[in-house]
């Protein structure tokens, strides 16, 4: 009998793209072997399979390489033993697209303000204000429903909340005082969920020869 081979997930704990992938794998119960890394020291094995060098990367049966976080989420949707997350609607995809292509840009400039060469007169607060356009849109949606696309969590919530978390953490005192009551409750709900606590458990960095670490981690 051949041994079961688990897909291999290269991941970095604090990366919001890797977080959305780990959340989807957890919620839909897809077991993988996880290989934690730090971005400054990516394993040669990962770069060989995915030269673009971003996480997450999911490798299935040593041949299929998935190197986009949304495609890892799609894999979880189609291969899970649970179907909590379903394929996204066009409305979900449109908001995710805005998250990934507009909000994330402002988030990076707000979070890593010192690292960006300043060609314009924009201040760090200006980038926060640009990012708030997206937060306001989310707050608006959450005023009439518990989640972004209705009263149940969906693919879209999972794809977006790790980025809102990162935005909130740039200046936690500011976020705590900001007027986004529904957004804060929505975010807290994810941050306190057992899935997220599991997803954020620390794992030692993987090295060749290590015994496999299976993910989701067993609850202990
Ligand atoms: N479009 C990619 C983006 C992934 C991405 O940019 N991940 C970051 C970490 S959060 C990364 O790996 N950056 C490479 C690096 O910093 O070396 C996806 O959705 O998976």
Descriptive overview:
By secondary structure, this protein is α+β, with helices and mostly antiparallel strands. It has two domains: 8-84 and 196-215, 3-Layer(aba) Sandwich (Glutaredoxin), CATH 3.40.30; 90-193, Glutathione S-transferase Yfyf (Class Pi), Chain A, domain 2 (Up-down Bundle), CATH 1.20.1050. It is built from nine helices and five strands; from the N terminus they run βαβαββαααααααβ. It has helices spanning 16-27, 44-49, 69-79, 90-111, 124-144, 155-170, 172-177, 181-191, 194-199, and strands spanning 8-11, 32-36, 57-60, 64-66, 213-215. β3 and β4 form a beta hairpin. α1 (16-27) runs parallel beside α3 and α4 runs antiparallel to α5 (124-144). The protein is globular, with a radius of gyration of 18 Å. The two termini are 31 Å apart. Bound molecules: glutathione. The site of glutathione (GSH) has 10 residues, from loops.
Structural class by SSE content: alpha+beta
Radius of gyration over alpha carbons?
18 Å
Mean pLDDT: 95
Task: Give the ligands present.
Answer: glutathione
Write down the overall geometry.
globular
Can you tell me the residue ranges where pLDDT is under 50 for at least 5 consecutive residues? none
- Structurally, how many domains make up the residues? 2
Task: Give the CATH class of the largest domain.
Answer: Mainly Alpha
Terminal-residue CA separation: 31 Å
The amount of helix comes to: 40-55%
Main sheet strand line-up: 4-3-1-2-5
CATH architecture of the largest domain: Up-down Bundle
Largest sheet: 5 strands, mixed
The total of beta strands comes to 5
What is the succession of H and E elements? EHEHEEHHHHHHHE
Total helix count? 9
CATH topology descriptor of the largest domain: Glutathione S-transferase Yfyf (Class Pi), Chain A, domain 2
């Amino acid at each position: 009998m051949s041994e079961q081979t688990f897909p291999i997930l290269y991941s970095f704990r604090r990366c919001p793209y890797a977080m959305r992938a780990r959340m989807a794998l957890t919620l839909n119960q897809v077991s993988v072997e996880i290989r934690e890394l730090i971005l400054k020291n990516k394993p040669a094995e990962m770069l060989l399979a995915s030269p673009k060098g971003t996480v997450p990367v999911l490798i299935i049966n040593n041949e299929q390489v998935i190197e986009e976080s949304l495609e890892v989420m799609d894999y979880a949707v189609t291969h899970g033993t649970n179907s909590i997350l379903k394929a996204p609607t066009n409305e979900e995809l449109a908001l995710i697209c805005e998250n990934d292509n507009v909000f994330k840009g402002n988030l990076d400039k707000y979070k890593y303000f010192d690292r960006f060469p300043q060609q314009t007169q924009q201040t760090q607060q200006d980038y926060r204000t640009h990012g708030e356009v997206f937060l306001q849109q989310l707050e608006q949606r959450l005023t009439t429903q518990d989640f972004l696309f209705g009263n149940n969590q969906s693919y879209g919530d999972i794809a977006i909340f790790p980025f809102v978390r990162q935005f909130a953490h740039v200046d936690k005192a500011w976020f705590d005082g900001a007027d986004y009551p529904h957004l804060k409750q929505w975010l807290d709900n994810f941050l306190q969920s057992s899935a997220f606590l599991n997803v954020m458990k620390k794992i030692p960095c993987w090295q060749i020869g290590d015994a496999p670490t299976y993910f989701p981690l067993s609850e202990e």
